[in-house]
Design a protein that fits this description.
By secondary structure, the chain is an alpha+beta fold. The chain contains 7 helices and 14 strands.
């Protein structure tokens, strides 16, 4: 049975309701994880999204920035919001999705961007980002080793490989691609609890590590596709219990051409659940 999960930093869900509807119509998505919803829970467009075919919704939002959500065609249970570093800043929500043959645990995660200065002593935002990644480590290691199928999605705000950016040389001192960020994210990917293996990077299962692939392109480029100065900031990781079911993953970059687009493109992964 195919089961499709997508992640998208939508950059304001209310502003891009038409784009969300188009994505739902164009692709057979069972679960859509959103980041930067930028809306308090009471104003989340529940009815409009229900009409798109996602009646089951888990949301954690705040006014004007951050915010994460899980939108599902299938029932959700055990919804949890993680207040990392003691902050209720709506960056991580997860829930169990019923597939008909057992639950899959789905996470929507929004890692702090980190500001502009890659010096954590001079830049509190970058220091917070690094502390956030450190705080995630034991939790993600435990979920990587879980017997339950787990899929971790979101805007991790790190491009971990040299081929995840348009120019490694130009960006290696720019936040999202600094050595310390890359090392921390790669450690999260590789390490499971109690010596277990880590996560599978879904997109890199189908796009070789020596091939460039991006999910974000700046609004500054008049023709983003021609310039192609992108970064891969959005990820789908799957734990060992789910990895054998992974059958496809891709960036839906057509969404970057839609009217009033997000600067991020959706990423989706398909699983053949036995």
């Amino acid at each position: 049975m195919p089961f499709t999960v997508a992640t998208w930093n939508v950059n304001s869900v209310r502003k891009r309701l038409e784009q969300v509807a188009r994505l739902a119509a164009d692709t057979a998505i069972d679960v859509l994880c959103l980041q930067e919803t930028k809306v308090v829970n009471d104003l989340f467009p529940v009815d409009a999204i229900t009409e798109m075919g996602f009646p089951h919704q888990a949301i954690a939002g705040m006014k004007g920035y951050n915010g994460v959500a899980i939108l599902s065609r299938r029932p959700l249970s055990d919804v949890r919001i993680e207040p990392w570093l003691g902050r209720d800043d709506c960056r991580h929500i997860h829930a169990k999705v019923e597939t008909g043959v057992g639950p899959v645990e789905v996470h929507s995660l929004y890692v702090p961007a980190g500001g502009d200065d890659p010096d954590p002593e001079a830049n509190p935002k970058f220091a917070h980002k690094l502390a956030f990644l450190d705080a995630l480590a034991p939790f993600l290691a435990e979920r990587a080793a879980a017997s339950m199928p787990v899929v971790l999605t979101g805007d991790f705000n790190v491009a971990p490989l040299e081929t995840d950016v348009w120019s490694h040389d130009r960006l290696k001192r720019v936040i999202t691609h600094t050595p310390i960020e890359r090392d921390k994210l790669n450690d999260l990917l590789a390490n499971g609890a109690n010596g277990a293996g880590g996560w599978t990077d879904a997109l890199r299962r189908f796009v070789p590590a020596d091939e460039k692939v991006f999910t974000w392109w700046s609004y500054r480029a008049a023709d983003w596709r021609a310039a192609d100065k992108g970064r891969r900031l959005d990820h789908i990781w799957v734990n060992a219990a789910l990895a054998p079911a992974l059958s496809f993953a891709a960036v839906h970059d057509a969404a970057r051409d839609w009217p009033e687009p997000s600067d991020h493109a959706p990423v989706r992964a398909v699983f053949e659940i036995p």
